[in-house]
Design goal:
- The complex is a heterotrimer.
- Chain A contains 14 helices and two strands; from the N terminus they run αββααααααααααααα.
- By secondary structure, chain A is mostly helical.
- In chain A, strands 1-2 form a two-stranded antiparallel sheet.
- In chain A, a hairpin with a 6-residue loop joins strand 1 and strand 2 (about 40).
- Chain A is globular, with a radius of gyration of 25 Å.
- The longest helix of chain B is centred in the C-terminal third of the chain and has 42 residues, at about 230-270.
- Chain B is mainly α.
- The two termini of chain B are about 30 Å apart.
- In chain B, helix 2 crosses helix 11 (about 230-270) and helix 6 (about 130-155) packs across helix 8.
- Chain B is globular and about 70 Å long.
- Chain C is an alpha+beta fold.
- In chain C, the strands form four sheets. In chain C, strands 6-7-8-3-9-10 form a six-stranded mixed sheet, sandwiched between helices.
- In chain C, a hairpin with a 4-residue loop joins strand 17 (about 325-335) and strand 18 (about 340-345).
- Chain C is elongated, with a radius of gyration of 25 Å.
- The two termini of chain C are about 30 Å apart.
- The chains are: A mainly alpha, B mainly alpha, C alpha+beta.
- Chains in contact: A-B, B-C.
- Chains B and C meet through helix 7, helix 8 and helix 11 of B and strand 6, helix 2 and helix 4 of C.
- Chain B: This is ABC transporter permease subunit.
- Chain B: It comes from Lutimaribacter degradans.
- Chain A: This is ABC transporter permease subunit.
């Protein structure tokens, strides 16, 4: 009895507030936009019994999905989301790896402090962290002032409201997600392995390539997924730092829903976004599973 | 044994400069006299004064705190239950679906979570306001809580519970007297995580909030969309300060506790 | 046998405290306990001994109520335990990990069970201080488990499980986490406490020396079955099977065929080797396959051929293991068989004459080995 209460309460909560809403999205993505309240058709009329259900299903179609393929705005947005997320993940890795490495190699008594310094931004508001770059990257911003002052440029650069600003924003906000898993694998690494490699004739650099990098592979993979997956659907960064040319699907979905009030198309955009995300999510799950099995 | 090489020291210095400079700049400019956020015109705290005089910000902050406290508390209860189910309940019909529903919200784009919940609330005719934000936040943060708590439960020594049963506890008492006090740190961090997630959330709140209730992130977002504003700098500074004090204090407390524990253990080992 | 010797298992009038009848426990496909029946008597110190995975822990957990038998019945004090949860059983357990509650002090740990019982406050005080005295923990009552040493933790676990004065105390590898020296001291302490409290102890261990030291009876287990139950001396001197002989201590096993001879059996065992003569009460058919099990310390090693030994074989010393108080000689016989002979080192090293590659004689009496069926 108690066992069923324990299972039942969170189960019902998730069914009602996670699964059912998602099924509603799926259903609305198959409906047609209408000038009604709510603004789509068909509506399920259960009072009409079996006939009602039949007409309801007859009214569903894949028109919205067909529409997504015909208007090149959407598929360009999907492709550019994946592109931006992929490139940004690469940049985050390049910035994050040396930091994680430096932390793992730091003296023992320093590590808790360094760890704290990485975690602190994670607890700080995401919105504020993104916003903090707006003042820096604007054309009169500090970065341009600095570059003008050292004489590297003689004309302010336009960075804010471009994809460059989006990349900076993603690297900045998602950096802890990259650092932490890599640090976790590097920290476990036995220092004697590098000494053994050098003893066997490796230079420092080859030892790094042949020992450190392969041993931190799991952390690199985990970190990349942790950055890549949420970045695809990102909304705040492209809408604050990106420009009109920045096509990201999270932003499109938002605009479709709030500005155009086209619920069926917004729902269809969401369904396709999820389908795109399923592949990296499954790969990520597999990777985690493998790691758990390896660690027994 | 391990020490800083010039490469590591450089990597760490540059890395942390990158992480912290933007926030330091933001904080500095919150004390700027000028309305122009890019020109330094002298020290002033006037933006803090204006912020505190701005009722709509204060209202939004109050709504945000209410939502965060209520949703993180419910999420902690539900998430701890879910963690117990994941780690302890063994096999039951629908287990795969259950764990899927726990893990899916962690990777679900916020726009989709927000959209789907909004469509649900409209579908069942629930007016959007504080209640709907709380429901939405509880749902996604309970999943984070359950991940945090279940990772602690996995390493929990089951024989402690068995010992409690053996000494005459009912299963419920064993949980209350033994399990809960021991996993309390994980439950508390789960609550803090849920609280922060709720405090931070813009996207889901934007979908589920109605005209009657606006949260602080929504307020900030609509203000900064138009550009940088010194008032928002001041607000950000306050929020950063609260978080910093909180996190540093928490880590100092836990560090002292673990040091004390280490010392005691060593003393006990020597005494033996 | 003298009447003062504690041996309720030999008394047909005695009622057992614990009765396993036809108990089987399966975990999915795996059979942990295979149709096992066994009686354990009050005030016994009963040891379940076996390698890991032999089912000894499962037996103990069924007594505590953490596992339920798939088949069969377990009675404690004549009462069927089926359906009785752990918290309602007159049984307490000392866990291998000790399972001390880390958030409670030593005092609170010991008082835990009494509080659950609803014992009056002053009685709890009395009982806990009694337990603290018994286990010499008075000074540590206010400490938390992480503030005391491993040996002290072990005693807290013991005190906690004894506080409710259970009829039966289960000990799961109670000394496994202690170092060798402390373990020896604690074994005697355990026996002392068992005697003082008069509680029935059932102990699970994989350490044969520990089982032999503490137990009134030892059950040697393998693959879910009990191979032999007897006093430590009988287990060692008269093992009932090759498995038991091999599991307990060091042993030489020689396979052969039994032929009835005068006053015992003559064993033919290898081409070109003399027959071995053994006295036994068991009977074997002529030519029946048998195993001769003999402890190394019962084998005499000498440079000269012993004149009047009923059994003697010749071989060459291959290896000598010097253990301080004892030396074990590994001797290879002409047919390649390896035998071990053990000698107490009563003399100084320099005075002993046998060394590597020496040709030596091994000899033993006709009652030294045990003859076992295949």
């Amino acid at each position: 009895m108690r066992r069923w209460l324990l299972i039942g309460i969170p189960y019902l909560w998730l069914l009602a507030l996670f699964l059912v809403p998602f099924l509603i999205v799926l259903k609305i993505s198959l409906s047609d936009v209408a000038l009604a309240r709510p603004p789509y058709l068909p509506q399920l009329d259960l009072s009409a019994g079996w006939e009602g259900i039949k007409t309801f299903f007859a009214g569903l179609d894949f028109d919205n999905f067909v529409f997504l393929t015909t208007d090149d705005l959407y598929w360009r947005a999907y492709i550019s989301s994946v592109q931006i997320a992929g490139l940004a993940t690469l940049f985050t890795l390049l910035v994050g790896y040396p930091i994680a490495y430096g932390m793992a190699m730091a003296p023992d008594h320093w590590r808790p402090t360094l760890m704290l310094l990485v975690i602190l931004p994670f607890w700080t508001s995401f919105l504020i962290r993104v916003y903090s770059w707006m003042g820096i990257l604007s054309s009169e911003g500090l970065l341009n002032q600095f570059l003008l002052w050292i004489g590297l440029i003689d004309q302010p650069l336009t960075i804010l409201n471009t994809n460059v600003a989006v990349y900076i924003g993603i690297v900045y906000t998602y950096l802890p997600f990259m650092i932490l898993p890599i640090y976790a694998t590097l920290e476990k690494m036995d220092g004697a392995l590098l000494e053994a490699a050098e003893d066997l004739g490796c230079s420092r650099l080859t030892a790094f390539w042949l020992i450190t990098i392969p041993l931190s592979k799991q952390g690199i993979i985990a970190g990349c997924f942790l950055v890549f997956i949420p970045t695809i659907g990102e909304f705040v960064i492209p809408s604050l730092l990106g420009g009109s040319g920045t096509l990201m699907i999270g932003k499109i979905l938002w605009e479709e829903f709030f500005n155009n009030r086209d619920w069926p198309v917004a729902s269809a955009v969401a369904v396709v976004l999820l389908l795109i995300l399923i592949v990296p999510i499954i790969l990520f799950q597999r990777n985690e599973q493998k790691q758990r099995e390896r660690e027994g | 044994m391990r020490r800083f090489t010039w490469f590591n020291a450089t990597a760490l210095t540059l890395g942390f400069a990158f992480l912290y400079l933007p926030m330091i700049i933001l904080i500095t400019y919150s004390f700027n006299e000028s309305k122009l956020v890019t020109v330094w015109a002298g020290f002033s705290t006037k933006w803090y004064g204006e912020l505190l005089g701005n009722e709509s910000f204060l209202d939004a902050a109050w709504v945000t705190v209410q939502v965060a406290v209520v949703s993180s508390t419910i999420a902690t209860v539900l998430g701890t239950m879910a963690a117990l189910v994941l780690v302890r309940a063994g096999r039951f019909a629908g287990r795969t679906l259950f764990s899927g529903m726990i893990y899916a919200p962690l990777v679900m784009p916020e726009v989709i979570t927000g959209l789907s919940l909004l469509l649900l609330f409209i579908g069942i005719g629930l007016d959007r306001g504080i209640l709907t934000i709380i429901l939405a936040h509880t749902t996604f943060s309970m999943c984070f809580v359950s991940v945090v708590v279940s990772s602690r439960l996995v390493s929990f020594d089951r024989s402690l519970e068995e010992a409690a049963l053996d000494l005459g506890c009912t299963p419920f008492h064993a949980f209350r007297l033994v399990t809960l006090p021991i996993i309390a740190p994980a439950v508390i961090s789960g609550w803090l995580l849920a609280f922060t997630l709720s405090l931070d959330d813009l996207v889901i709140a934007s979908f589920t909030a109605g005209p009657s209730a606006t949260t602080l992130p929504i307020k900030i977002f609509s203000a900064v969309r138009l550009g940088v504003s010194p008032e928002i700098n001041a607000l950000s500074t306050i929020m950063i300060a609260i978080v910093t004090v909180g996190v540093v204090a928490a880590s100092l407390i836990s560090k002292r506790a673990s040091l004390a524990q280490q010392r005691d253990t060593q003393a006990a080992a020597r005494a033996a | 046998m003298a009447p003062t010797v504690f041996s309720p298992w030999d008394d047909p009038e005695e009622k057992p405290l614990i009765q396993f009848t036809g108990v089987t426990k399966r975990f999915g496909e795996f059979t942990a306990i295979d149709n096992l029946s066994q009686d354990i008597y009050a005030r016994e110190f009963f040891a379940l001994l076996g390698p890991s995975g032999c089912g000894k822990t499962t037996m103990m957990r069924m007594l505590a109520g953490f596992e339920t038998p798939s088949e069969g019945q377990i009675l404690i004090g004549g009462q069927d335990m089926a359906g009785i949860p752990p918290n309602k059983r007159p049984v307490n357990m000392m866990f291998q990990s000790y399972a001390l509650f880390p958030h409670l002090s030593v005092w609170e740990n010991i008082a835990f069970g009494l509080k659950r019982e609803g014992t009056a406050k002053d009685q709890i005080e009395v009982r806990v201080s009694e337990m603290l005295r018994l286990t010499r923990l008075d000074r540590f009552a206010k400490r938390k488990p992480h503030q005391i040493s491993g040996g002290q933790r072990q005693r807290v676990a013991l005190a906690r499980s004894l506080a409710k004065a259970p009829k039966l105390l289960l000990l799961d590898e109670p000394l496994g986490a202690l170092d060798a020296k402390l373990r020896e001291e604690t074994q005697f302490e355990l026996m002392d406490i068992q005697e003082k409290t008069g509680t029935t102890f059932v102990i699970v261990t994989h350490d044969q020396e520990e089982a032999m030291t503490v137990a009134s009876r030892v059950a040697v287990m393998d693959e879910g079955r009990i191979m032999q139950v007897a006093t430590p001396a009988v287990i060692y001197e008269q093992p009932s099977s090759v498995y038991v002989a091999d599991f307990i201590g060091d042993v030489n096993i020689i396979e052969g065929a039994a032929n009835p001879g005068d006053d015992g059996y003559d064993i033919t065992w290898a081409e070109g080797q003399p027959k071995l003569h053994v006295k036994t009460e068991k009977s074997f058919a002529p030519g029946q396959k048998c195993f001769l099990a003999m402890r190394p310390e019962k084998v005499v090693i000498s440079a000269e051929e012993p004149a009047d030994a009923p059994n003697r074989v010749q071989g060459q010393i291959i290896d000598i293991a010097y253990l301080g108080n004892l030396s074990t000689y590994h001797v290879q016989l002409a047919d390649g068989t390896m035998m071990k002979a053990q000698i107490a080192n009563t003399r100084r090293l320099s005075r002993r004459s046998l060394t590597w590659e020496d040709r030596v004689w091994l000899s033993w009496t006709d009652t030294a080995p045990v003859l076992l069926e295949g």
